[in-house]
Amino acid sequence: xxxxxxxxxxxxxxxxxxxxxxxxxxxxxxxxxxxxxxxxxxxxxxxxxxxxxxxxxxxxxxxxxxxxxxxxxxxxxxxxxxxxxxxxxxxxxxxxxxxxxxxxxxxxxxxxxxxxxxxxxxxxxxxxxxxxxxxxxxxxxxxxxxxxxxxxxxxxxxxxxxxxxxxxxxxxxxxxxxxxxxxxxxxxxx
Length: 190
Known about the structure:
Blueprint: E1 2-6, H1 11-21, E2 25-29, H2 46-61, E3 65-74, E4 80-81, H3 94-104, E5 112-123, E6 126-138, E7 154-156, H4 168-174, H5 176-189
Helix pairs in contact: 4-5
């Protein structure tokens, strides 16, 4: 069984991916390899940030690794918050960031937005990138209690509910992260 690191501390995410890749891969997370560093995300794109994380693990732990970076891009705001989604207002607080975004969107009629995830897989000395995008629009006000971040104001195309109104099973089938992860898994199983 080959070892593969998922550059996350989220145990739930790790188990989910582990189940999808068993028995070919043993999926470990940052905690599982003893990585206690908050890997800096100093890139200017999702791909750069994901690659910084996966490269860090390969260089410091000599294990193949994949990492993701994602965020919300709002067309009318020149694709902000983008890579700054988690700290758009200047602080790492979901509610504060959501309110800050809604303030910037006051009076704006173009509500088009998309969630984007890029996964970097560093394997056998090569970097492979996988991208998932889901288009939608920004609601005028938050609705729903599921999810996190901007989920209460993001309504995906083809649905009349926000991510925060969806059950986890549906969101995990259609989300940007799910789409990128499906590509990664197909590549690894191929």
